User: Which sequence fits this backbone?
């Protein structure tokens, strides 16, 4: 494959006009939108307006006048469209870790006779940590069973209360079959919690068609909501009024401004809220979602896989003599929107790449990770990134003290 082949793919790209909606530093090839999405150009003005006009001038009246109080629901509905969920089934707020705790509590209460939480060792560690804290807090015989990703289907049996699985593996990009896992879980009387951290805005998730029970995800990755942007949470409509929220705060109360001393959950998805939300971050997220309004997720998926495939092919053509190995499945239909490559000096190589303005990240023990974000990544950038990577490896440019020293965030 030549650079001109990549330029030809860019010329035909149905999403190429979207790049202008993002503020990408001149000369930077940004392949880390799976960790922190880039800044959409319309966000700063919206945040400034929320701060200076709404907060500065309208002050407390803004909860009503500027719709602050209902932002989590409004934003939830906008995210719902992107993950195959009906209106009124998604609420924005808090973080993945906090929302996961809420859903663990909800799922446990809905399947009270069982004690096994099933997950896999490709899950993001924080999800496992939260489940460990939940298990220990419950102190009621709960077991966190962690199997290999390939063993999840077989491990679903009548002991499982619910599965807690991340659809796309944050390291290998391995994609679980949501429909099959959910169907097997239901057949065995178990519920499902799906983490969509690396799915939302990257793959055409179909929560309702798959009959998923619960889901959650963040918005600072592919959805470009900004650092620490509010997360989201989904509950299947049929279960919403059965959920007993473990973080039963006033924002989930049926009448928060009645100030009753007894908790009474709001109907529907709202009961999964806990307390006051970060409105400036909500304003940023709301603006960031504008770019998605006319995006067809199947068109996005097609480009995502083509970008990943181009990268994998180029890596294998040009870097095979350097002992690199692509992680995860070879079948593109079993992959998400990033590609990791194993290399024994992966950390230092990535630091050298970043010094050359090609930004990816590193995941222990030995993976260089590259995220492909179809709204703003071009095929020519993929070609250039591999070209620079090949030079760094050919000349061992990574072998310098400033690249070998580990930073706090990798
Ligand atoms: C990014 C990510 C998280 C991060 O959780 P926060 O609470 O937002 O920090 C959790 N789970 C998965 C699978 C992730 O990829």
Assistant:
């Amino acid at each position: 494959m030549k650079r001109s082949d990549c330029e030809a793919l860019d010329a035909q790209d149905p999403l190429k006009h979207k790049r202008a909606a993002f503020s990408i530093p001149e000369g930077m090839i940004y392949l880390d939108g799976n960790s922190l999405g880039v800044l959409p150009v319309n966000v700063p003005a919206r945040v400034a307006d929320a701060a200076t006009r709404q907060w500065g001038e309208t002050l407390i009246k803004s909860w009503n006048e500027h719709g602050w109080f209902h932002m989590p629901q409004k934003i939830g509905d906008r995210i719902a469209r992107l993950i195959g969920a009906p209106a009124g089934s998604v609420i924005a707020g808090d973080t993945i870790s906090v929302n996961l705790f809420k859903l663990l509590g909800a799922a446990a209460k809905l399947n009270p006779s069982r004690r096994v939480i099933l997950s896999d060792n490709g899950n993001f560690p924080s999800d496992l940590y939260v489940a460990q804290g939940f298990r220990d807090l419950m102190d009621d015989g709960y077991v966190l069973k962690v199997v290999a990703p390939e063993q999840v289907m077989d491990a679903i049996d009548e002991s499982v209360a619910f599965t807690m699985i991340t659809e796309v593996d944050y390291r290998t990009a391995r994609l679980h079959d949501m429909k099959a896992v959910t169907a097997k879980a239901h057949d065995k009387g178990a519920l499902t919690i799906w983490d969509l951290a690396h799915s939302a805005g990257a793959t055409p998730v179909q929560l309702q068609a798959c009959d998923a029970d619960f889901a959650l995800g963040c918005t600072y990755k592919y959805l470009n909501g900004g650092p620490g942007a509010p997360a989201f949470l989904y509950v299947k409509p049929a279960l919403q009024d059965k959920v007993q929220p473990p973080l039963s705060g006033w924002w989930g109360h049926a009448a928060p401004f009645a100030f009753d001393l007894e908790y009474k959950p709001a109907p529907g998805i709202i009961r999964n809220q806990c307390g006051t939300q970060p409105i400036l971050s909500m304003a940023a997220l709301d603006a960031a979602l504008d770019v998605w309004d006319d995006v067809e997720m199947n068109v996005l998926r097609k480009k995502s896989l083509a970008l990943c495939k181009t990268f994998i092919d180029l890596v294998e053509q040009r870097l095979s003599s350097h002992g690199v190995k692509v992680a995860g499945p070879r079948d593109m239909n079993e992959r998400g929107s990033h590609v990791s490559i194993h290399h024994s000096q992966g950390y230092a190589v990535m630091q050298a790449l970043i010094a050359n303005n090609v930004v990816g990240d590193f995941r222990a023990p030995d993976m260089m990770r590259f995220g492909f974000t179809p709204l703003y990544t071009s095929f020519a950038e993929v070609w250039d990134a591999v070209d620079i990577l090949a030079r760094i490896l050919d000349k061992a440019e990574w072998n310098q003290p400033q690249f070998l020293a580990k930073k706090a965030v990798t």
Notes: Residues 196 and 217 are 5 Å apart (CA to CA).
